[in-house]
Amino acid sequence: MITDQTASLAKPVRTEAYLDLLQMLTGVGLVAFMWTHMILVASVNLDLGGGRVMNAIAHFFEATYMAQLGGPVIALVMLAHFVLAARKLPFRAREQKAMWRHSMTFNHLDTWLWMIQAGTAFIILIMGCIHMWTVLTDLPITAAKSAARIQGGWWLLFYIVLLPMIELHVGVGIYRIGVKWGWIKRVNRKALHGLENKLTLTMVGIGLVTLFTFFFLVKAM
Fold it and tell me: Which own/partner contact pairs does 102-111 have at CB distance under 8 Å and 24+ positions apart?
């Protein structure tokens, strides 16, 4: 027999489960977007900085209004994901000290990975919004325009910082989602974590090659 007290206790638990599911779905969506975005921007490497492939892809997304509409949608999803994840982040100094003390005591890999995710989340939220605002308020996207931005001012350093932050966050995120929802088990955890590390390094490598192409090979407008 379910009492009123049991029902009242079940509601917060059920709500937290729904919020965790929504956090997972928004996270997976953002991972898919980040990796797809990386591959599409890296198309500038296919013609050694000529920009024809990248320009064609960018034109398609803008002509179909996927860039104009998708950009704000991605920004909202990113904000929603951060708000959902922030439920478990230590914002107060006392909480942060306690979290650091526990992490040092347990010295567990998954705990450190959570710390990396929490730290990179704040950086990505700020720098990602700056990147999206800069790009979407200066359409159309072209290889020459992107090169001009990277070749001037502090943008190269900006992207050198943002790139590993994003890839660390999404790589660790996919791994932790698999662990949390039972897809990654104890028997295959080490192998899949190694695969996640290789994938993260691969994506960082692709990003660095793309930055090199923009900085040295693409003719700025």
Answer: 109/193, 110/176, 110/179
DSSP 87: G
Eight-class DSSP state of 213: I
The model's pTM is 0.82
Q: Which residue has the tokens 């034109």?
A: 59
Burial label for 154, CB within 10 Å (0-12, 13-18, 19+), is: exposed
Cα separation, 135 vs 37, whole angstroms = 13
The pLDDT tens digits of the residues spanning 177-201 come to 888 777 787 787 788 878 888 999 9
> Pick from 38, 51, 53: which is nearest to 220 by CA?
51
pLDDT in tens, 42-81: 999 998 878 899 999 999 999 998 888 888 999 999 999 9
SS3 content of the chain, % helix, strand, coil (to 5): 85, 0, 15
SS3 label, residue 139: coil
The listed CATH number (1.20.1300.10, 3.30.70.2860, 3.40.50.300, 3.40.50.1820) that belongs to domain 16-217: 1.20.1300.10
In the chain, the N- to C-terminal Cα span, in Å, equals 73
Return the residue matching tokens 């980040």: 34
